[in-house]
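Worked example 2:
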Amino acid sequence: MEALEKIYGGVINSTGALLYPGAPLGAEVFASGISGWDMWMIGSFMPALQLMMSEGFMKYMAFEEDPGPSYDWTTFNFDTDPLKMASISLMIDATDPDLSAFRARGGKIIHYHGWTNMALNPTMSVNYYESVLNLMGVEETMDFYRLYMVPGMFHCAGGAGCDNVDWFASLVNWVEDGIAPEGLIGSHIEGGGVTRTRPLYPYPAVAVYTGSGSIDDAVNFTSSGNKGLSATAKGSPLELKDSVRNSIHINMDVVSCNAGFRPVRYLR
């Protein structure tokens, strides 16, 4: 129980200040025989990826002077060592909320993150997006940057949620045709077939069940913001198959910001 409290409670220092959010609830679920904890938190057939990546980072990247291969990560001091990582943080952490230059160039961002991502905590994306909203204003931000949080999606893809979305086509429509994304259809695939569809809405809106019809059909959901499905949120499961195949490639290969979330960015 103590271990679980630490995993879900997040990283804190001796004063109780939260340095990093706890693991997302729901990532433990098995989807198609795989848990969100597999590979990242639990090394079933190999050392956990979180441990391997973090250990290498601490040895050769984190500090001004690399401690080298002899560094013992268990000696990390949560009160004093974070300050020693300030230089690398400036280089790789996407924490600057001022995106005015990007917006001025006509850039658009569709930023998505799975709520059950064990590799990169979803709270990071929410916190960053809210910092942009606070600095640049809600209407101004929504004009060029929208965040989609995907329930049940693991790292980039997979999980129990509807993780297959044609992000790139939506981005092209926004940049080239001025059609801002609202509700986008996500689909869940098992055994090569679509078993569930669900609309995804720009944060903070969420999909709400209308109270009737199959919960596996996107048409039976609406937005918590009462916008309903937009013109971009359409398509039966059969019609979605081609876009699903395309979005699998996009999920794995789109450019990602350094804080660990994955926005699809496009300048015309």
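The first strand starts at residue 11 and ends at 12. Residues 2-26+33-92 form one domain.
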